[in-house]
Amino acid sequence: MNVIEVIENGESETTEFKTSFAEWRDVVETISAFSNRNGGTIFIGVSDGCEILGVNNGKSTLEDLANQIKQNMDPVIYPSIRIEMIGGKTIIVVDVKEFEQKPVLAFGRAFMRVGKSSQKLGYEEIRRLALLTSKVYWDGRVCEGASLEDIDEGKVKWFLNRAKSERRLELDSETPVKETLNEFNVLKEGVPTNAAILLFGKNPQRFFIQSEIRCARFKGLKPLEFIDMKVFGRDIIAQRDDALAFVKEHIRLHAQISGAERVERWEYPIEAIREAITNAICHRDYEIASNTQIRIFDDRVEVWGCGQLPEPLIPGDLKGEHKSILRNPSVAECLFLIKFIEQWGTGTNRMIERCLDHGMPEPLFDEVAGDFVVTFRKYSFTDEVLNELNERQQNAIEFLLEHKKITNREYREINPDISERTALNDLNDLVHKNMVATKGEKKHRYYILR
Asked: Which of 206, 227, 249 is the last residue of a domain?
């Protein structure tokens, strides 16, 4: 639109009218308000009713206005100031862009454009604005030493086609790589960001050696002796697939007959584990020199992210409704485009639902030694409960995990030098703790895990 059309539309969230230079203080405050929101334009010499009044433009008028802006704003803003002639009358047009480093103060106070007015912000609003805009997200930074040569064109093409299919992205499949990456907001002045390298890099570990997933299948219940271990590099989308494939290698796939059909069912709900792995690669703190980890034990699967939950979330929040607070917004936006995540804070709720539907306890959400951990359990007892058991009872749990049932005699065989009465007391205590259940009567009695 030209200047006349803008004026005819009246004042708005991005348009302000001032009658003369006498309102210069209001002009400075409006510059603060526009800078702290979405930018806007001030017309000096126009009435609230859209009438062109004009101004007297003396020799130093524009210079005086620029000086007032410079002297009374912090940080200093340099808006575009120009003269427009409309119907033989002179008006001054001040174009203000949104300023990255907020808040912008006028006369020591911060203003925000709300509707057609510029409102003064209070302390809490200023603090919130500063926190929101001062954060430079790691994934949005330029990847030092990287160039477009480090981007895998095939990965970009695959991603683009997937986004078109999943989210109906309106971008031609033959769009050049550079233009595609610009559309995904993972380039800065033609240089790949950290997010671009994680998602589409030929060799992301050349730049971020810590950007791997470490997977292990441990023997028993503790992370002491592993049966198998692999470390997966490449891009984070490939890591997600590799890690899930590792989990499938080390959990059971049961076959059941449902009606006339043979139905295969994984030992754990695969969709829930996939969700946990996706969350880990999306929300981890990539500045920490550690790996995302998948730990598989006889009784559980643990997915360790890197770093704590983004503030102000705590583990307890994840069982109810909560906002999606992003640590890596560029990565998250790209994963959203291919439907790996939804960005509604519902991922943990879906994990809970899928575990319950699978007949398993809810997953545990916890922070351990500075890392967020999701634990999928076969049974309702936790490590905390296990640690409260005596050594004989812990031996019995290990035996049950391998053999599925245990008798009083077997209990005494794995715990030599104890009486039948001691064994019975120990086993009854496990029943009381709701960890095992009894089957059979008297001499034929045995115990199974709940």
From this structure: 206
